[in-house]
């Protein structure tokens, strides 16, 4: 054996012991996230996330978060849509984005890797385009109705000016048409 290597102890590559992790619940993860440093998180965001994680925790109970799959999170999201009446757009923008953010934080070193992977990272509900188009159409109809109501109110308040304005230039009273 080389004299330079003799100074260093031999590396023991014996059998590795598997460290048993304790069960981590959704409440544990949210409490750790809430207690962590909040340089970029507003108090209103924490309040909104607390509500969302309350729904999530009540759905899954004390189940270990590391046992959750993306199918489980998708099942929760469809439950929110079908049973609680929340729109898919709202679930995608609020609920799932909050769960993705906190679970993503739980996979980092700062969270001591409470989660091994983020089960919500690829979950998204399909939004119906028809509903969005219908809402846009209804908004434009409401705007047109408001314009009509304003115009009819003006007609009632000032009938002479309105009639004079509407009949100001016609072929009957314009000399250019003679």
CA-based gyration radius:
32 Å
| Uncertain stretches of 5 or more adjacent residues | none
Cα end-to-end separation: 120 Å
Order of helices and strands: HHHHHHH
What does this structure look like?
- The chain has helices at residues 3-6, 26-35, 43-60, 70-84, 88-106, 129-157, 159-166.
- It starts with a helix and ends in a 12-residue tail after the last helix.
- It has 178 residues and is an all-alpha fold.
- The longest helix is centred in the C-terminal third of the chain and has 29 residues, at 129-157.
- Helix 2 packs antiparallel against helix 3 (43-60) and helix 4 (70-84) runs antiparallel to helix 5 (88-106).
In short:
This protein is mostly helical. It has 7 helices and no strands. The relative contact order is 0.09.
Which features characterize this protein?
0% strand
Describe the protein's topology.
Blueprint: H1 3-6, H2 26-35, H3 43-60, H4 70-84, H5 88-106, H6 129-157, H7 159-166
């Amino acid at each position: 054996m080389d004299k330079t290597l003799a100074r260093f102890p031999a590396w023991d590559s014996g059998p590795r012991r598997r460290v048993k992790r304790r069960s981590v619940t959704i409440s544990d993860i949210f409490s750790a996230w809430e207690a962590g440093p909040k340089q970029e998180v507003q108090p209103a965001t924490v309040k909104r996330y607390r509500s969302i994680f309350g729904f999530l925790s009540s759905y899954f109970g004390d189940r270990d978060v590391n046992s959750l799959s993306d199918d489980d999170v998708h099942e929760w999201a469809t439950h929110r849509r079908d049973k609680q009446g929340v729109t898919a757009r709202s679930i995608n923008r609020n609920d799932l984005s909050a769960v993705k953010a906190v679970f993503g934080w739980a996979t980092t070193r700062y969270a001591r890797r409470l989660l091994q992977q983020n089960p919500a990272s690829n979950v998204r509900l399909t939004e119906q385009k028809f509903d969005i188009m219908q809402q846009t159409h209804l908004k434009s109809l409401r705007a047109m109705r408001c314009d009509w109501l304003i115009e009819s109110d003006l007609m009632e308040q000032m009938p002479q000016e309105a009639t004079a304005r509407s009949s100001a230039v016609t072929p009957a009273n314009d000399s250019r048409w003679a």
